[in-house]
Amino acid sequence: MTRRIGLIGCGDVSVVHVEAIRDIEGLELVGVADTDPQARARAAAATGVPGFADTQELIDAAGPDAVHVATPHDQHIGPSLTALEAGVHVLQEKPLAHTLEEGRRLVDALESAGARPGAPKVGICFQNRYNLASRRLHEMLGAGELGAVRGAWASVVWTRSADYYRARPWRGTWAGSGGGLLINQAIHTLDLVQWLLGGVERTDGHVATRKYGEVIEVEDTAELLLHHPGGITTSFFATLTAPQHRPVELELDCERAYVTLRGGTDGGLTIRWADGRVETLAERSVTSGGRSYWGVSHELLIRDFYARLDEPEPFWIGPGEAMASLGILKEAYRLSGVGPAA
Ligand SMILES: NC(=O)c1ccc[n+]([C@@H]2O[C@H](COP(=O)([O-])OP(=O)(O)OC[C@H]3O[C@@H](n4cnc5c(N)ncnc54)[C@H](O)[C@@H]3O)[C@@H](O)[C@H]2O)c1
């Protein structure tokens, strides 16, 4: 059976979705939509499918089974709700939404829709949960192989330029993005940390705009202490002010081993056992038109979303799961007294 797919939002990240839809057997791109006529025309020409001005138009004309939503943060929930109401499955980019309130609208809509048999599903693109290293670490923690976790450290030390924000002004505004570094870049690592360590019960921390204040109103730097169940904490540092990208790092101090997870093209897992053995697991490497710091696992997530579509359960990384990282970072903003209250 071929599944008909629509793409909503034809900007930077859309190339990764187009590649995955092309490469995964049983998927066919049937239309693209973008509110910007130029972006729409470029995408239609590049993919050979019709371009539409909005989600409803695409659904009415192209009859997709699912849409991928890759729009700016403040434009996530609108297209996703339109699709859900039409009974169309949704694979939406992170974050869940630019505000908690908008995020809850999708959680609620999915809950109401979920009561019906054959109800549409919603997946949120936290593709780094599909990295070999993250999956292995999650398995080991679940099986108790590492012993008790004593504490964790995570960092996202990346670079951006003023032009990155000038090219897409929504990225630098509270109204368009709902935040800066935490909601746009470090959210993947926040999601991993809370997924691996059983959630976050309390957040301490502070965010600041250190380098790009002339072009953005949101933060480019953050330091947090995340409190997990059982009294464990993660020290979390993130910034976009570095001269070069460093690999994302996540380190767990456990009773039986010290574990280092590194992102990036030569990333993977290193387990230094207390008895002196050292085990390593290299990350997969893939070639894609996407950027290396987006990780290697978008296609794996998309493939898995479609492979599980006929199962009765909701997709495992749905809006409810995605509320966790949104909640953590919004709390950091609240504590720092920045951004709108929601
Ligand atoms: N998972 C990842 O690793 C990853 C990586 C990059 C970006 N993203 C996410 O993807 C999303 C898009 O990011 P980007 O950098 O590609 O943005 P972008 O600005 O390059 O592209 C967004 C496109 O959406 C269009 N658009 C805006 N509102 C629309 C609407 N209502 N309907 C249809 N089209 C609309 C814009 O005209 C633009 O062409 C963001 O949520 C971002 O956080 C995720």
Automatic annotation (TrEMBL):
Presence of the UniProt keyword NAD in the record: yes
UniProt KW keywords: NAD
Domain GFO/IDH/MocA-like oxidoreductase: 135-258
Keyword match NAD: yes
InterPro entries associated with the record: Gfo/Idh/MocA-like_OxRdtase_N (IPR000683), Gfo/Idh/MocA_Oxidoreductase (IPR052515), GFO_IDH_MocA-like_dom (IPR055170), NAD(P)-bd_dom_sf (IPR036291)
Domain Gfo/Idh/MocA-like oxidoreductase N-terminal: 4-115
MF GO annotations: nucleotide binding
Protein name in UniProt: Dehydrogenase
